[in-house]
């Protein structure tokens, strides 16, 4: 009998590694390692197909989350940029208005002092 569960027992009581079973090459003396391979391969293929489908689904979810995160980041950055530009524009307009008001303020004071004399 084979010691490990990773081995396959041939009819001549030799043990081979399970990775040599259904590999298309005769490893046992009477080729029993290549018998019933259709059942073995279909069971393995089902497991691989299920695993592959799960990985594809996880990958698609990861891509969708990444794209949504990128779009959300762009929206936030755009909102901050627009807010900053508006703030700068308002500040510049206030500065211009104050500059214009300060330009005419001395004249208004001068006219007031003239009217009292």
Architecture overview:
A two-stranded antiparallel sheet has the order 1-2. The protein has a domain at 58-116. It is mainly α and 117 residues long. Helix content is 68%, strand content 5%. It starts with 6 loop residues before the first strand and ends with a helix. The protein contains one helix and two strands, in the order ββα. Keywords: Disulfide bond, Membrane, Transmembrane, Transmembrane helix. The chain crosses the membrane at residues 59-82. InterPro entries: LDL_receptor-like_sf, LDrepeatLR_classA_rpt.
Mind sketching the topology for me?
Layout: E1 7-9, E2 15-17, H1 37-116
Antiparallel strand pairs: 1-2
Summarize the structure.
68% of the residues lie in helices and 5% in strands. With 117 residues, the chain is mostly helical. It has a domain at 58-116.
Output the keywords.
single chain; 117 residues; mainly alpha; two-stranded antiparallel sheet; 1 helix; rod-shaped; membrane; transmembrane helix; disulfide bond
Percent helix, as a range, is 55-70%
Specify the overall morphology. Answer: rod-shaped
What class would the helix/strand composition place it in?
Answer: mainly alpha
Largest sheet: 2 strands, antiparallel
The fraction of residues in strands falls at 5-15%
Largest sheet strand order = 1-2
Number of strands: 2
Task: Specify the number of helices.
Answer: 1
User: What series of H and E elements makes up the topology?
Assistant: EEH
**How far is the N terminus from the C terminus?**
127 Å
**What is the C-alpha radius of gyration, as a whole number of Å?**
41 Å
Poorly predicted residue ranges = none
Mean pLDDT: 81
InterPro entries: LDL_receptor-like_sf (IPR036055), LDrepeatLR_classA_rpt (IPR002172)
Keywords: Disulfide bond, Membrane, Transmembrane, Transmembrane helix
Pfam families: Ldl_recept_a
Disulfide bonds: 10-28, 22-37
């Amino acid at each position: 009998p084979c010691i490990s569960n990773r081995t396959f027992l041939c009819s001549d009581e030799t043990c081979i590694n399970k990775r040599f079973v259904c590999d298309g090459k005769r490893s046992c003396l009477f080729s029993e390692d290549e018998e019933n391979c259709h059942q073995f391969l279909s069971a393995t293929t089902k497991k691989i197909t299920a695993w592959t489908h799960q990985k594809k689904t996880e990958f698609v979810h990861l891509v969708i989350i990444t794209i949504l995160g990128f779009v959300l980041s762009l929206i936030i950055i755009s909102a901050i940029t627009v807010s900053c530009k508006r703030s700068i524009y308002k500040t510049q307009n206030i500065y211009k208005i104050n500059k214009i008001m300060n330009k005419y303020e001395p004249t208004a004071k001068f006219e007031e002092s003239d009217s009292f004399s």
